[in-house]
Amino acid sequence: MNRTAAQTRVAPADIAMRGLGKRYPGTALAAVEDVDVEIRAGEIVCIVGASGCGKSTVLRMVAGFETVTDGDLLVAGAPIAGPGPDRGVVFQDYGLFPWLTVAENIAYGPRQAGLARAEAAARTREALEAVGLARVERSFPHQLSGGMQQRVAIARVLANKPSVMLMDEPFGALDALTRTDMQHELQRIQRDAGVTVLFVTHSIEEAVYLADRVIVMAGGTAHGIAGHVREIVAVDLGEDRDPNSPAFNEIERHIDALVHAGNAARV
Ligand SMILES: Nc1ncnc2c1ncn2[C@@H]1O[C@H](COP(=O)(O)OP(=O)(O)O)[C@@H](O)[C@H]1O
Ligand SMILES: [Mg+2]
Questions:
Q1: Counting Cβ atoms within 10 Å, is residue 246 exposed (0-12), middle (13-18) or buried (19+)?
Q2: Pocket test for ligand 1, best of 20, 22, 24, 62 (most atoms within 8 A of CB)
Protein backbone atom coordinates (compact mmCIF):
# COMPACT_ATOMS: atom_id res chain seq x y z
CA MET A 1 0.00 0.00 0.00
CA ASN A 2 1.38 3.45 -0.84
CA ARG A 3 1.62 6.35 1.58
CA THR A 4 -1.45 8.14 0.23
CA ALA A 5 -3.58 5.07 0.68
CA ALA A 6 -2.36 4.59 4.23
CA GLN A 7 -3.26 8.17 5.09
CA THR A 8 -6.68 7.92 3.53
CA ARG A 9 -7.62 4.67 5.18
CA VAL A 10 -10.12 4.73 8.02
CA ALA A 11 -11.92 1.82 9.58
CA PRO A 12 -14.81 0.80 7.32
CA ALA A 13 -18.15 0.45 9.09
CA ASP A 14 -20.66 -2.37 9.03
CA ILE A 15 -24.31 -1.57 8.31
CA ALA A 16 -27.16 -3.49 9.95
CA MET A 17 -30.70 -3.30 8.58
CA ARG A 18 -33.14 -5.19 10.78
CA GLY A 19 -36.81 -5.22 9.84
CA LEU A 20 -36.06 -1.90 8.21
CA GLY A 21 -38.98 -0.05 6.67
CA LYS A 22 -40.00 3.34 5.36
CA ARG A 23 -43.46 4.78 5.07
CA TYR A 24 -43.49 8.28 3.59
CA PRO A 25 -45.91 10.72 5.27
CA GLY A 26 -49.39 10.67 3.75
CA THR A 27 -48.92 7.38 1.87
CA ALA A 28 -50.98 4.26 2.58
CA LEU A 29 -48.38 1.70 1.58
CA ALA A 30 -44.82 1.47 2.85
CA ALA A 31 -42.22 2.32 0.19
CA VAL A 32 -39.95 -0.30 1.76
CA GLU A 33 -40.55 -2.97 4.39
CA ASP A 34 -38.90 -5.88 6.19
CA VAL A 35 -35.37 -5.29 4.94
CA ASP A 36 -32.95 -7.55 6.78
CA VAL A 37 -29.39 -7.14 5.55
CA GLU A 38 -26.10 -7.22 7.41
CA ILE A 39 -23.38 -5.52 5.39
CA ARG A 40 -19.90 -6.33 6.61
CA ALA A 41 -17.25 -3.65 6.96
CA GLY A 42 -15.31 -3.30 3.71
CA GLU A 43 -17.88 -5.03 1.51
CA ILE A 44 -19.17 -3.68 -1.79
CA VAL A 45 -22.90 -4.35 -1.89
CA CYS A 46 -25.03 -3.37 -4.88
CA ILE A 47 -28.80 -2.92 -4.92
CA VAL A 48 -30.69 -3.68 -8.14
CA GLY A 49 -34.39 -3.83 -8.94
CA ALA A 50 -37.06 -2.24 -11.10
CA SER A 51 -37.86 1.48 -10.80
CA GLY A 52 -39.83 2.36 -7.69
CA CYS A 53 -38.92 -0.72 -5.63
CA GLY A 54 -37.23 1.41 -2.98
CA LYS A 55 -33.52 1.28 -3.82
CA SER A 56 -32.96 4.99 -3.33
CA THR A 57 -35.13 5.02 -0.23
CA VAL A 58 -32.86 2.44 1.44
CA LEU A 59 -29.73 4.35 0.43
CA ARG A 60 -31.21 7.67 1.58
CA MET A 61 -32.04 6.21 5.00
CA VAL A 62 -28.42 5.07 5.39
CA ALA A 63 -27.32 8.55 4.29
CA GLY A 64 -29.59 10.03 6.97
CA PHE A 65 -31.60 12.06 4.41
CA GLU A 66 -34.76 10.11 5.26
CA THR A 67 -35.91 8.95 8.68
CA VAL A 68 -36.40 5.28 9.51
CA THR A 69 -40.09 4.58 10.22
CA ASP A 70 -39.82 0.84 11.01
CA GLY A 71 -37.17 -1.46 12.38
CA ASP A 72 -33.53 -0.64 13.00
CA LEU A 73 -30.71 0.76 10.95
CA LEU A 74 -27.27 0.80 12.52
CA VAL A 75 -23.95 2.00 11.12
CA ALA A 76 -20.90 0.86 13.12
CA GLY A 77 -23.38 -0.24 15.79
CA ALA A 78 -25.08 3.12 16.24
CA PRO A 79 -28.49 4.30 14.99
CA ILE A 80 -28.38 7.00 12.33
CA ALA A 81 -29.40 10.43 13.54
CA GLY A 82 -28.94 12.34 10.28
CA PRO A 83 -26.41 12.92 7.53
CA GLY A 84 -22.75 12.85 8.54
CA PRO A 85 -19.29 12.99 6.99
CA ASP A 86 -18.74 9.35 8.00
CA ARG A 87 -21.21 8.43 5.19
CA GLY A 88 -20.27 10.07 1.89
CA VAL A 89 -22.86 10.22 -0.87
CA VAL A 90 -22.07 10.24 -4.61
CA PHE A 91 -24.96 11.09 -6.93
CA GLN A 92 -25.44 10.54 -10.65
CA ASP A 93 -25.45 14.29 -11.32
CA TYR A 94 -22.15 14.80 -9.40
CA GLY A 95 -23.57 17.52 -7.12
CA LEU A 96 -20.49 19.75 -7.41
CA PHE A 97 -20.55 23.48 -6.68
CA PRO A 98 -20.12 25.06 -10.14
CA TRP A 99 -18.68 28.30 -8.75
CA LEU A 100 -15.86 26.56 -6.87
CA THR A 101 -12.70 25.06 -8.35
CA VAL A 102 -12.06 21.34 -8.11
CA ALA A 103 -9.77 21.87 -5.10
CA GLU A 104 -12.28 24.18 -3.42
CA ASN A 105 -15.07 21.66 -3.96
CA ILE A 106 -13.01 18.98 -2.27
CA ALA A 107 -11.77 21.18 0.57
CA TYR A 108 -15.31 22.31 1.34
CA GLY A 109 -16.24 19.30 3.52
CA PRO A 110 -13.09 19.28 5.65
CA ARG A 111 -13.39 23.08 6.12
CA GLN A 112 -17.03 22.68 7.18
CA ALA A 113 -15.86 20.05 9.65
CA GLY A 114 -13.60 22.69 11.20
CA LEU A 115 -10.22 21.65 9.84
CA ALA A 116 -7.59 24.35 9.50
CA ARG A 117 -6.89 25.56 5.96
CA ALA A 118 -3.53 23.74 5.76
CA GLU A 119 -4.96 20.45 6.91
CA ALA A 120 -7.93 20.76 4.54
CA ALA A 121 -5.45 21.45 1.73
CA ALA A 122 -3.49 18.31 2.63
CA ARG A 123 -6.68 16.24 2.65
CA THR A 124 -7.61 17.73 -0.71
CA ARG A 125 -4.27 16.82 -2.30
CA GLU A 126 -4.50 13.33 -0.90
CA ALA A 127 -8.05 12.85 -2.24
CA LEU A 128 -7.10 14.28 -5.64
CA GLU A 129 -4.20 11.84 -5.88
CA ALA A 130 -6.46 8.97 -4.86
CA VAL A 131 -8.69 9.59 -7.89
CA GLY A 132 -5.85 10.55 -10.25
CA LEU A 133 -6.85 14.19 -10.70
CA ALA A 134 -3.98 16.18 -9.18
CA ARG A 135 -3.49 18.13 -12.44
CA VAL A 136 -6.93 19.72 -12.61
CA GLU A 137 -7.23 21.10 -9.10
CA ARG A 138 -7.62 24.68 -10.37
CA SER A 139 -10.22 23.85 -13.02
CA PHE A 140 -13.91 24.48 -12.61
CA PRO A 141 -16.33 21.53 -12.86
CA HIS A 142 -17.79 22.67 -16.23
CA GLN A 143 -14.31 22.44 -17.77
CA LEU A 144 -14.15 18.71 -17.03
CA SER A 145 -15.68 15.65 -18.71
CA GLY A 146 -18.46 13.75 -16.97
CA GLY A 147 -16.08 11.02 -15.87
CA MET A 148 -13.68 13.56 -14.37
CA GLN A 149 -16.50 15.37 -12.59
CA GLN A 150 -17.57 12.07 -11.09
CA ARG A 151 -13.98 11.52 -9.90
CA VAL A 152 -14.11 14.94 -8.23
CA ALA A 153 -17.37 13.94 -6.54
CA ILE A 154 -15.69 10.79 -5.23
CA ALA A 155 -12.63 12.77 -4.09
CA ARG A 156 -14.91 15.17 -2.26
CA VAL A 157 -16.34 12.25 -0.32
CA LEU A 158 -12.89 10.72 0.35
CA ALA A 159 -11.62 14.02 1.77
CA ASN A 160 -14.06 13.56 4.65
CA LYS A 161 -12.48 10.18 5.42
CA PRO A 162 -15.77 8.31 5.38
CA SER A 163 -16.29 4.79 6.65
CA VAL A 164 -19.17 4.25 4.21
CA MET A 165 -19.59 5.41 0.61
CA LEU A 166 -23.17 5.56 -0.71
CA MET A 167 -23.62 5.74 -4.48
CA ASP A 168 -26.98 6.14 -6.25
CA GLU A 169 -26.59 5.19 -9.93
CA PRO A 170 -23.33 7.18 -9.97
CA PHE A 171 -22.17 6.06 -13.42
CA GLY A 172 -25.57 6.08 -15.12
CA ALA A 173 -24.88 9.26 -17.09
CA LEU A 174 -21.45 8.21 -18.36
CA ASP A 175 -20.68 6.69 -21.75
CA ALA A 176 -19.92 2.96 -21.79
CA LEU A 177 -16.10 3.24 -21.92
CA THR A 178 -15.88 5.86 -19.18
CA ARG A 179 -18.28 3.82 -17.12
CA THR A 180 -16.03 0.75 -17.34
CA ASP A 181 -13.03 2.89 -16.35
CA MET A 182 -14.91 4.26 -13.36
CA GLN A 183 -15.98 0.81 -12.21
CA HIS A 184 -12.35 -0.26 -12.26
CA GLU A 185 -11.29 2.93 -10.45
CA LEU A 186 -13.94 2.48 -7.80
CA GLN A 187 -12.63 -0.99 -6.97
CA ARG A 188 -9.10 0.36 -6.59
CA ILE A 189 -10.28 3.34 -4.51
CA GLN A 190 -12.40 1.10 -2.34
CA ARG A 191 -9.46 -1.22 -1.65
CA ASP A 192 -7.10 1.70 -0.90
CA ALA A 193 -9.51 3.72 1.23
CA GLY A 194 -11.00 0.67 2.92
CA VAL A 195 -14.57 1.95 2.87
CA THR A 196 -17.80 -0.01 2.85
CA VAL A 197 -19.70 0.69 -0.38
CA LEU A 198 -23.47 0.56 -0.90
CA PHE A 199 -24.13 1.11 -4.59
CA VAL A 200 -27.50 1.39 -6.38
CA THR A 201 -27.52 0.59 -10.08
CA HIS A 202 -29.90 -0.23 -12.93
CA SER A 203 -27.20 -2.31 -14.59
CA ILE A 204 -27.08 -5.95 -13.54
CA GLU A 205 -23.73 -6.32 -15.30
CA GLU A 206 -22.32 -3.42 -13.29
CA ALA A 207 -23.61 -4.99 -10.07
CA VAL A 208 -22.05 -8.40 -10.84
CA TYR A 209 -18.79 -6.71 -11.84
CA LEU A 210 -18.51 -4.67 -8.63
CA ALA A 211 -20.30 -6.40 -5.80
CA ASP A 212 -19.42 -8.94 -3.17
CA ARG A 213 -23.17 -9.36 -2.82
CA VAL A 214 -26.15 -8.06 -4.79
CA ILE A 215 -29.41 -7.18 -3.06
CA VAL A 216 -32.27 -7.76 -5.48
CA MET A 217 -35.32 -5.70 -4.57
CA ALA A 218 -38.86 -6.00 -5.93
CA GLY A 219 -42.31 -4.56 -5.44
CA GLY A 220 -43.09 -0.88 -5.25
CA THR A 221 -46.15 1.18 -4.53
CA ALA A 222 -47.04 1.23 -8.26
CA HIS A 223 -47.63 -2.53 -7.94
CA GLY A 224 -49.54 -2.26 -4.68
CA ILE A 225 -46.78 -4.13 -2.89
CA ALA A 226 -44.27 -2.54 -0.55
CA GLY A 227 -40.71 -2.57 -1.83
CA HIS A 228 -38.80 -5.48 -0.31
CA VAL A 229 -35.74 -7.67 -0.72
CA ARG A 230 -36.39 -10.58 -3.07
CA GLU A 231 -33.01 -12.26 -2.70
CA ILE A 232 -29.43 -11.51 -1.73
CA VAL A 233 -27.02 -13.01 -4.25
CA ALA A 234 -23.38 -13.70 -3.34
CA VAL A 235 -20.97 -13.00 -6.20
CA ASP A 236 -18.12 -15.43 -5.61
CA LEU A 237 -16.04 -14.48 -8.61
CA GLY A 238 -12.85 -13.17 -6.99
CA GLU A 239 -11.16 -9.89 -7.93
CA ASP A 240 -10.52 -9.94 -11.67
CA ARG A 241 -13.92 -10.46 -13.20
CA ASP A 242 -14.52 -11.18 -16.83
CA PRO A 243 -18.03 -10.13 -17.92
CA ASN A 244 -17.74 -12.61 -20.78
CA SER A 245 -17.01 -15.66 -18.63
CA PRO A 246 -19.65 -18.36 -18.17
CA ALA A 247 -19.61 -18.01 -14.36
CA PHE A 248 -20.22 -14.24 -14.66
CA ASN A 249 -23.04 -14.76 -17.14
CA GLU A 250 -24.71 -17.36 -14.99
CA ILE A 251 -24.94 -14.98 -12.03
CA GLU A 252 -26.12 -12.22 -14.35
CA ARG A 253 -28.91 -14.43 -15.73
CA HIS A 254 -29.97 -15.48 -12.24
CA ILE A 255 -30.28 -11.85 -11.11
CA ASP A 256 -32.00 -10.83 -14.33
CA ALA A 257 -34.64 -13.52 -13.80
CA LEU A 258 -35.19 -12.30 -10.22
CA VAL A 259 -35.54 -8.67 -11.32
CA HIS A 260 -38.01 -9.57 -14.06
CA ALA A 261 -40.01 -12.16 -12.13
CA GLY A 262 -42.94 -9.76 -11.84
CA ASN A 263 -44.81 -8.49 -8.84
CA ALA A 264 -48.05 -10.48 -8.82
CA ALA A 265 -47.09 -11.69 -5.37
CA ARG A 266 -43.95 -11.93 -3.32
CA VAL A 267 -41.75 -14.65 -4.71
N1 LIG B 1 -40.39 11.78 -0.70
C2 LIG B 1 -41.30 10.85 -1.06
N3 LIG B 1 -42.59 10.93 -0.68
C4 LIG B 1 -43.49 9.99 -1.02
N5 LIG B 1 -43.18 8.89 -1.72
C6 LIG B 1 -41.91 8.75 -2.12
C7 LIG B 1 -40.90 9.71 -1.82
N8 LIG B 1 -39.72 9.28 -2.36
C9 LIG B 1 -39.99 8.12 -2.98
N10 LIG B 1 -41.30 7.80 -2.84
C11 LIG B 1 -41.94 6.57 -3.34
O12 LIG B 1 -41.33 5.46 -2.75
C13 LIG B 1 -41.20 4.40 -3.69
C14 LIG B 1 -39.75 3.98 -3.82
O15 LIG B 1 -39.04 5.05 -4.44
P16 LIG B 1 -37.46 4.99 -4.65
O17 LIG B 1 -36.80 4.61 -3.38
O18 LIG B 1 -37.06 6.27 -5.27
O19 LIG B 1 -37.33 3.79 -5.70
P20 LIG B 1 -36.13 3.40 -6.69
O21 LIG B 1 -34.93 4.16 -6.29
O22 LIG B 1 -35.98 1.92 -6.53
O23 LIG B 1 -36.60 3.75 -8.08
C24 LIG B 1 -41.82 4.90 -4.98
O25 LIG B 1 -43.16 4.48 -5.05
C26 LIG B 1 -41.75 6.41 -4.84
O27 LIG B 1 -42.79 7.03 -5.55
MG1 LIG C 1 -33.71 5.51 -7.33
A1: exposed
A2: 24
pTM: 0.94
Same domain, 126 and 246: no
Mutate which of 67, 166, 221, 259 for ligand 1 pocket (most atoms within 8 A of beta carbon): 221
pLDDT tens for the chain, 267 residues long, are 344 444 546 788 999 999 999 999 999 999 999 999 999 999 999 999 999 999 999 999 999 999 999 999 999 999 999 999 999 999 888 999 999 999 999 999 999 999 999 999 999 999 999 999 989 999 999 999 999 999 999 999 999 999 999 999 999 999 999 999 999 999 999 988 889 999 999 999 999 999 999 999 999 988 899 999 999 999 999 888 999 999 999 999 999 999 999 776 565
Q: Would the CA dihedral through 260, 262, 266, 267 be positive or negative?
A: negative
- Find out whether the beta carbon of 31 lies less than 6 Å from any atom of ligand 1: yes
Alpha helices for 41-175 (secondary structure H): 55-63, 102-112, 117-130, 146-158
- Final residue of a structural domain among 161, 190, 207: 161
- Residue owning the nearest CA to atom 16 of ligand 1: 54
- What is the 128 CA–ligand 1 centroid distance (Å)? 34
Do 134 and 18 lie in one domain? The reply is: no
